[in-house]
Write the structure tokens for this entry.
Amino acid sequence: MMQKYDVKIRKANENDIDNVLSILLRLKRFNSEFDCFCRVSEKDMDEIRNYVKKIINDSEGHIILIAEDRDKTVGILIADILYRIYYNPKHEARMRDLYVMPEYRQKGIASDMIRDLKNMASEKDVGLISAEFPASNPIAQIFYNQIGYLQLVSIYGKPVTE
């Protein structure tokens, strides 16, 4: 029998901090599988919690969405609103974090969250939506290519102490 889901997408609020943090850390640990520069700093949980609280309350600079199945948070989308002084369009919503729990994937939830982001971003005069993820994450590459996103920039890194 196929599992029935009743997923709703809404803006996150302060009551969602623990759920956002839980899924966000799950995503960050997943990212560490693809990129050695993405190791989660487990000792900085208070700082991470404070950051999540800050961006949830910063509606001018961030859009944070959660997907819920009844009372269970099953997905998050965190986007930063950036000002692009040298380019048009001037404002960009950069998705830094998009994660849907594995048992809820392939159901259009991520696409629905991006659609809602697009609607909210257009109200903020945002003309570009982009996605940031580890370069060696093939799941993200395939997903964003399938929904029509193009690669915009490449970022390279090297540890300072090497």
Observations:
- The chain is about 30% helix and 25% strand.
- The CA atoms of residues 41 and 48 lie 9 Å apart.
